[in-house]
Batch of 3 targets.
Target 1
Amino acid sequence: MFKKIVLFLSVVSISFGYDLKPIQISKSVYQFIGKTEAPSKANGGNMVNTYWIKTDKSYIVVDTGPSYNYAKDAHKAMKKIADLPIKYVINTHMHDDHWLGNNYFKELGATIYGTKAQAKKFPVGSEAHMLSVIKKEDSANTKIINIDTFVEKDFSMKVDNTPLDFIHFDYAVHTPEDIMIYLPEEKTLIAGDILFSQRITSIRDGSVEGGLKSLDAVEKMDVKVYAAGHGKFTDKTALQQMRDYFMALKTTARKAIEDGIDINTYVKTADFSAFKDMAMMEVLHKGNLGFAYSEYEFFEEK
Ligand SMILES: [Zn+2]
């Protein structure tokens, strides 16, 4: 009987887990790419990109993924590159696909940076929707913990010999507060959900106008590698795809309002056939049309 149980457990343990493989995208930055789809039992919430910055002595983790077990598996993969301590964790924004691995890194002694908006929305003891979507085996051990240090403005710091710039958006872009990390020496921008490629974004907690403004800010920066929150591209593809979608939302919503078309008719009839090949259109697009219409209903161009 005991032998049978041992055999069963060893077979099951092989089928669990996230199959995570880091891709080096610049001198010191490694990327884990998630699927461009909604979180599900099948993908375990691995539908987000997370990043590791390797200095000469330690790691900085930018976004920790959808669960404790995801974070642990990412660490296992990174140990094969170098077994270094994890000094800092940075959460780019409050959406729970980006930071539910925090408590894994806290156990290892990392200091966690994030936004006040995230702490307000997810205090210790609150519930994250992600954990009700994915399998129990994947969500096991995940706990919501406190952020140690709030990022409230732009600042720079040097970790070991690697300089990092924190860029803080104090106006709504993807969420009420978003953070990007820029590595000036390798011109790499870890943009969080300021940038997506291959799939559309969600406007639910953000703003079309804020999104366009953030893209203007990104375009003024000296960037070679664009590390997006979702989607595989690291060139300018994400910038273009975001701008095209935001501009289409803005122009169609403003035209509909000007023509006296009501919100329901707009949502039903707005022509976005040019975006039909983008992932997540089925899930997010109708909602985005509604948010865009509401935003521009009382909007005045400055
Ligand atoms: Zn995201």
Note: The radius of gyration is 20 Å.
Target 2
Amino acid sequence: MNTKNTWKKYRGELYQKYFRKNIIEVFVTDKIDSVRAKAELMINNKIYIPIDIKLPYPMDRSMAGPGSGSLSIALTFDNKNIKLVTSRNQNESYSLQKENGKFHILKDKKIFLENVEMTPILFHAPRQAFINLDSRCIYNCAFCNLSKRGFFHEYDAEKFVKLILKASNRSDFQAVALTSGVYPDNTKTIKKMCYIIKNVKEKLPDIPIGVEPCISNKKEILLLKKAGAEEIKINLQIPDKDLFGKICPDFRYNDILNILGEAVELFGKGKVTSNIIYGVGESDRSVIKAIEKLAKMGVVPTLRMIRINELNKKKLEEATSDKLPNISVDRVLKIAHEHKKILEKCGLTTQTFETMCHKCGCCDIVPFWDV
Ligand code: SF4
Ligand code: SF4
């Protein structure tokens, strides 16, 4: 072999041994970093918006979900969405910066994430008209953050239909989702949901509709399905049975499991989801056991890190008779990876959903989207 060929071979080996390896490592590190960044932002949940920054889209005031009652914005980076509560307090750890028309997130005044995009929120979520039909609820779940600042309880079912049809004129409109507090009783709430679904489907037959109701019996699931809902979220909420009894005193753990089984029979595998909230004192083992239990039934759980605020902190600490633990980035990521592994084992994915949280991805680390 001549010197030229020897050098070529040597260069090839060097490339394989170091350069390519480094590229892969850098790529993997970048990917992990953006997930870590998302988890870190989720834990902190607030972003300072300097008064002189003109936002391209209006802030959203959510009536349900983690940022309920607060003004939020949705941001996108590395194909990951996140919704953060906005703050005018310049001492927040994270802040938004705008430079030459681009947005960056700063952490302690240093660049944390570059070239972040602001994503428009339709109703509560990007690309979805996700509506909370009633902010009142007869039940008392200690973590619940339903905002009392909503005006929708003055709306009747017909007004909601009009609101959704109006939203459908927007170019980013892709889906409808309905949630609700239970008021004055579940029969009335389900009836209202069914009316809205039927009437929206009549005008927009191809738009997917997801529902997040409280369910008392199989008949209610059937009514929603017949009305035209394609996806359903029935929340288990608390994975640990003992904590469940303390935090959701009006519900029974096993009843929700049975109802979820019935929902899978009617809506199909990969079309039923259920919130599992963590960060209220449960063990990782109990979270994983709950994910396994639901996934084996064909339910694709939504893993939701608890967001603590002045509305729910005292209620939760009183209910559990304990101080709430801090949640680390490592724990959030560990749970997300376990979640993905279990879904894979059960032949499920979050990507079968067209509506609600798996599709939105703003509040959780979502398997198959984020990890
Ligand atoms: S049933 Fe739903 S809306 Fe009512 S308190 Fe519980 S979590 Fe909140
Ligand atoms: S992830 Fe769910 S709760 Fe959070 S903004 Fe999106 S739809 Fe709402």
Note: Residues 65-66, 83, 124-125, 130, 356-357, 360, 362-363 surround iron/sulfur cluster (ligand 2) (CB under 6 Å).
Target 3
Amino acid sequence: MTRIHQVKGRDLNDALERARDAVGERAVVLSQRTAAGGVTLAVADTAPRTKDELSRLRGRARAILAHSPEVGRVPKPRPSTAEVEERLRMSGTSQRLTERVLEAVAGRADEGRHPLDLAGDELGAIFSVAQAKMRRGTTTIFALLGAPGAGKTTTAAKLALRLSKAGKRVAIVTTDTHRVGSVEQTKALGKHIGCTTIALRDPAKLAQALASAEPAPDVVLIDTTGRPAEDGAALDRLAEALALENVEAQLVRFLVLPASANNEALARACATATCDGCVVTRLDETERPAPVLEQALSGKLPVAFLCDGPAIDAHLHRATESVFADLLLRGRIAR
Ligand SMILES: Nc1nc2c(ncn2[C@@H]2O[C@H](COP(=O)(O)OP(=O)(O)OP(=O)(O)O)[C@@H](O)[C@H]2O)c(=O)[nH]1
Ligand SMILES: [Mg+2]
């Protein structure tokens, strides 16, 4: 026997859509009533076979609608935060940050935007991008500190290549002069990129070199030894020497943080060196990029660059707000 269903919607289109969802494609609208709160439809779940049956059903439908209460205000569907929560879980986001993001998304539920976009906005506002403006006539020295194997040398090469391509005069300095092959590795990279390389056991000596350089490089990348506490102290001496020599230079220290490292190692790295920002490497080696970004956040280290592979000409990305959203909601940097 044909059943008659009542379906309410905000307007006719909404009610028709809901009728299709509730009753199926074979739904036949028999009657409708419009009121201030929206539209109510009386819908048959099977098509009447004869004209007589149709008019009988219409009569019943009109009677049902006449006795049904006024259409109440149909609540606007609230965007679901379940997808945001699931994606944050997949990227290894902490409970605390997840709750913060979900709360922000729920608070903006009536903006009519997709919850993932709202979550992306919130993440973009939480994580910070390192500002390292290069000034004309001043040598910018980027020093890369970090644990052994973090990706310092590779990142120095990636930055050198990027900046050379931008027309900057670039020099790479390695302070890792003890380890066998390290100076040769730097020289080979410099040759490949087409930039100057210098091996200096004590980076403070760079101040004299810059004072007498004509022309001075626009950018110097210092690749350190992998002992952040000692490297930090050596860079403090360099800062003093630059001031003594009156060298027009700004020293920016970036901690290199591998995304594949565990939380303990990351927290240790953040605690051992005082830096202006960080470079996140090895994002291609983990499906959980959130912990490294959260460590950077709690260590008050804005992110300058992110690396998702070893290739010096392909795997370096400037940090942006949308990159943070990509990583935490999609697990990787969109290409
Ligand atoms: N998959 C992947 N490998 C990387 C990345 N960055 C660097 N590597 C590789 O990691 C290894 C170590 O990188 P290095 O740049 O030599 O690391 P380092 O910090 O200079 O290491 P030490 O000088 O020993 O302290 C090399 O084989 C790199 O090719 C990255 O983002 N992803
Ligand atoms: Mg190295």
Note: Residues 51-67 form the longest helix (17 residues).
